[in-house]
Design brief:
Elements: H1 2-23, E1 32-35, E2 43-46, E3 58-62, H2 65-73, E4 82-90, E5 94-97, E6 102-105, E7 108-112, E8 129-132, E9 138-143, E10 149-150
Antiparallel strand pairs: 1-2, 3-4, 4-9, 5-6, 5-8, 6-7, 9-10
């Protein structure tokens, strides 16, 4: 009987602790983020303080407003969802897609650009040619189910 009380006490203790943490969620630093998209492996990721961001680093960011509207419309993500992607390019880097849908950053072939998303929907039109990553920005990239580049 005493063992049951101890177990029940521990269960209630954990429950109250969890409820307290949930109520304080907005005031606590976010330590983990869950990625549910296939562009990087699905799962939980530990967030570290930002330092010097480099190519191929994983970063969490808020989707820009224009892309957020498209993501919500197509059912990719709920509004306000943060994304986890790899850094494909940094400020000043040149990137683009050629007519064969080959994706390049600074004239280095990165991979084949995807024409459709995982749901078979056409990706937004990405015109051929070169583009430059703007100051204080980075180029987020991910990989589709078949290894193709999604940006």
């Amino acid at each position: 009987m005493r063992k049951k009380r101890v177990v029940l006490g521990l269960c209630f203790g954990w429950m109250f602790l969890l409820m307290g943490l949930i109520s304080m969620e907005s005031r606590l630093p976010q330590l983990f983020v869950y990625n549910a998209t296939a562009s990087v492996p699905v799962g939980w990721y530990l967030l570290l303080p930002p330092q010097n961001v480099a190519r191929d680093d994983m970063v969490v960011f808020t989707v820009p407003e224009d892309m957020q509207a498209l993501a919500v419309e197509r059912g990719w993500l709920p509004k306000g969802t943060k994304m986890l992607k790899r850094v494909g390019g940094l400020a000043g880097d040149m990137y683009g897609v050629n007519r064969s849908r080959q994706f390049y950053v600074n004239d280095v072939y990165i991979g084949q650009a995807s024409l459709v998303n995982g749901k078979g929907q056409e990706m937004p039109d990405r015109s051929c040619g070169s583009h430059m990553v703007e100051d204080n920005c980075f180029l987020p990239v991910g990989y589709g189910d078949k290894g193709e580049i999604v940006w």
